[in-house]
Amino acid sequence: MATRKTSPDDLLGPVTLAVGQEDLLLDRAVQEVVSAARAADADTDVRDLTPDQLQPGALAELTSPSLFAERKVLIVRSAQDLSADTIKDVKAYLADPVEDISLVLLHAGGAKGKGLLDAARKAGAREVACPKTTKPAERLTFVRQEFRALGRSATAEACQVLVDAIGSDLRELASAVAQLVSDVDGTIDEAVVGRYYTGRAEASSFNVADRAVEGRAAEALEALRWSLSTGVAPVLITSALAQGVRAIGKLSSARGGRPADLARELGMPPWKIDRVRQQMRGWTPDGVSLALRAVAEADAGVKGGGDDPEYALEKAVVAVARAARMRRG
């Protein structure tokens, strides 16, 4: 078996192993490799595979020589769930990887599929840690690193206010940091974050989200139009909608308990637990899924995937409000 240790900076090494359960970090690990491959060859063939798509023998076919000698990136998600026979195929490949093919294994860590994890490490795979953030201090560190990675300064108080306002979802935190960096010049302080997330946001984008998740479509649309007319960025509204729906999904699947206990478990401020409990009435698991899909479509629309961001937001608001009334309907 190959034992050459791949440099952490070698994004085009034969094998990258992303270990953990934090979806944002896993996706970033994948995107780094894909971007590096496409920078080297714009025609890189990227295959994103789930365990059910990688049946025994499929890896040999995917890594067989190409007539056009093209570069490939093979992404294997949830590698811990691969069948025993497919794991054998992957281990055999690790012993003799193919040039110009980058294999990216996403593994949750833990005992399941540990043999594959050990084999990849022994083969010298480049490893990226993608641990789930479970503590407020870890989320605070993440926010600070996001600002630093974008070349901007933010005060400690600003980072704390952002974490308190957004909660535990790293995607939403990263999106909020990116939006602040895009919109604000100079050092980002507590007052700046307050204008977005405890002042203007509460009075506008979060107001839209609150009315929508409560099933009050007409009021949500009215709040949406007012927000847009006053210059609130559409991406802040989709972010608020996503936060509102995800909070309901998290709380509905959590164990019962006091707001303070649930706040620690879910990474929300205690006051938000009480609010979400009031908003949960009428929601079903199917409703949460439908609403999240609608918000994702709107998010794509406001970020350039559609011709009319306002219409995309209106559709999402109506869809969320309808989803909130599924049980009552």
Report the span from N to C terminus.
60 Å
Q: Give the overall average pLDDT.
A: 86
Largest sheet: 5 strands, parallel
What fraction strand?
Answer: 5-15%
**Pattern of helices and strands:** EHEHEHEHEHHHHHHHHHHH
The largest sheet has its strands arranged as 2-3-4-1-5
What percent of the residues sit in helical stretches (DSSP H or I)? Answer: 55-70%
The low-confidence runs, each spanning 5 or more residues with pLDDT under 50, are 199-203
Number of strands: 5
**Helical/strand content category:** alpha/beta
Assign an overall shape: globular
Q: Could you give a short description of this structure?
A:
The chain is of the alpha/beta class. It has helices spanning 23-40, 58-62, 84-95, 114-122, 136-149, 156-166, 170-183, 190-203, 205-213, 217-229, 234-253, 259-266, 270-279, 285-305, 309-323; strands at 15-20, 45-49, 72-76, 101-107, 126-130.
Overview features:
single chain, globular
Overall description:
With about 325 residues, this protein is of the alpha/beta class. About 60% of the residues lie in helices and about 10% in strands. The protein is built from 15 helices and 5 strands. The protein has helices at about 25-40, 60, 85-95, 115-120, 135-150, 155-165, 170-185, 190-205, 205-215, 215-230, 235-255, 260-265, 270-280, 285-305, 310-325; strands at about 15-20, 45-50, 70-75, 100-105, 125-130. Strands 2-3-4-1-5 form a 5-stranded parallel β-sheet, with helices on both faces. Strand 3 (about 70-75), helix 3 and strand 4 form a beta-alpha-beta unit. Helix 9 packs antiparallel against helix 10, helix 11 (about 235-255) packs antiparallel against helix 14 and helix 14 packs antiparallel against helix 15 (about 310-325). The radius of gyration is 22 Å and the shape is globular. The termini are far apart. The model is unreliable at about 200-205 (pLDDT under 50).
